[in-house]
Write a structure and sequence with these properties.
By secondary structure, the protein is of the alpha+beta class. Strands 1, 2, 3, 4, 5, 6, 7 and 12 form an eight-stranded mixed beta sheet that branches. A four-stranded antiparallel beta sheet has the order 9-10-8-11. It starts with 5 loop residues before the first helix and ends in a 6-residue tail after the last strand. The chain binds alpha-D-galactopyranose (GLA). The site of alpha-D-galactopyranose has 12 residues, from α5.
Length: about 400
């Protein structure tokens, strides 16, 4: 991940736009447990991680929105009075989607220059898109004079991805990017948007292992899983008229009506209702019983592999490569699936050696060099303060 000094980013901005920048940032995330539950109104337990997307911004006197990136070439110019309604197929879509949402919320968008620097590896399932959306939202809002509370910012960014980019993602990534805290995971009730911070024991490190298989959420599989869950709810509501999401269904209620559902839909629903239970239990035991948390994470991976069918051979190989290594507490695939990363909880002193051995084992099995990131839970989005006098 390409870390960049804030002063360097501000200097590049000033050189390219001849204006002084304000800086905002928003992090990527790793999900510890609670996968494919958010869009079922369920529970998730992610942490923000210390890889941020930074957005430098300044106002313009005309009606142009000018976007540049430190990683991708090109300057993109849009008219804020006439923003495109169709996605453009570039990284700009996440910013445009957010600008569109501000416009739909009745906010006047000012002309602005934006320079984006992303540290979150793209397509790795660590929510580089949510980080870009949230950081852009904070940057644009700073010029609009609007002051949406953070929960509304998270929802606005989710809608940007749903409506403009076309991925029907849940609220988890944008929410934790806003509300993450150093040293803590965030147990989110994705229906009420109430949340609870769950301290991660200081002796535990996250080791994130990237299969290097790019995952693509806008691809149909993710949206298909959502539709299968929705079908499950429609069929189950004949027996349970009060339910409006799988969140409302218990394992017993589901198993009692197995024969009312197509087998595939039943397996998808079974994953979701059990995963909700595992997530609540894991959040409760994080301080007291990491061994059980480990078993729950393992069960989550098996369920995502066998019932929800969003794992892939590389993710399975990466999970297996971790087993039995010194300091290993737990591991599973993380995020939407079909590639991306595994998350491993590892005793701090062993984390670096663990990461190297997993990468070596993965190389032996697949021939691929994996990136690994040893990190800890980090703070969520906000303004970046530059050193005084610079
Ligand atoms: C992606 C989506 C999230 C969530 C996960 C699966 O990361 O953006 O909303 O649905 O997949 O848990």
């Amino acid at each position: 991940m390409k870390k960049m000094d804030l002063e360097d980013l501000a200097a590049v901005f000033e050189r390219e736009f001849h204006a002084e920048a304000q800086l905002f940032r928003a992090p990527g995330r790793v999900n510890l447990i609670g996968e494919h539950t958010d869009y079922n109104d369920g529970f998730v337990l992610p942490s923000a991680i210390g890889f941020y997307t930074h957005v430098a911004v300044s106002p313009r006197d005309d009606r142009k929105l000018v976007l540049r990136s430190t990683e991708y070439s090109g300057t993109f110019e849009f008219d804020v009075s006439n923003l495109p309604h169709q996605k453009q197929g570039t990284w700009c879509d996440y910013v445009l989607g957010v600008a569109q949402q501000f416009a739909q919320a009745g906010t006047t968008i000012r002309g602005a220059n934006l320079l984006v620097h992303g540290e979150v590896p793209v397509g790795s399932g660590l929510s580089s898109s949510a980080a870009l959306e949230v950081a852009s939202a904070l940057a644009l809002q700073s010029l609009n004079g609007s002051k949406f509370p953070l929960k509304q910012i998270a929802k606005l960014c989710q809608r940007a991805e749903n409506e403009f980019v076309g991925a029907r993602v849940g609220i988890m990534d944008q929410f934790v990017s806003c509300f993450g805290e150093a040293g803590r995971a965030v147990l989110i009730d994705c229906r009420s948007l109430d949340f609870k911070l769950v301290p991660i024991p200081p002796e535990v490190s996250f080791v994130i292992c990237n299969t290097m298989v790019r995952h693509e959420l806008a691809g149909g599989e993710y949206n298909q899983r959502r539709e299968q869950c929705e079908l499950g709810v429609r069929l189950l509501s004949k027996a349970y008229p009060a339910i409006s999401a799988l969140r409302d269904v218990s394992v017993d209620q589901l198993t009692a009506h197995e024969s009312d559902l197509p087998p595939l839909v039943y397996r998808r629903c079974l994953h979701v209702v059990r995963e909700n239970e595992r997530t609540i239990q894991a959040a409760r035991l994080f301080q007291s019983d990491l061994a059980t948390v480990g078993r729950l994470m393992h069960a989550s991976h098996e369920s995502l592999r066998d019932l929800y069918e969003v794992s892939c051979s590389e993710l399975d190989a990466m999970v297996e490569a971790a087993e039995g290594l010194p300091g290993y507490i737990a591991g599973r695939m993380t995020g939407g699936g079909f590639g991306g990363c595994t998350i491993n909880l590892v005793e701090r002193g062993n984390a670096q050696a663990f990461a190297e051995t997993v990468a070596a084992r993965y190389r032996e099995r697949t021939g691929v060099d994996a990136d690994t990131y040893v990190c800890r839970a980090a703070d969520g989005a906000g303004t970046e303060t530059r050193k005084a006098g610079v």
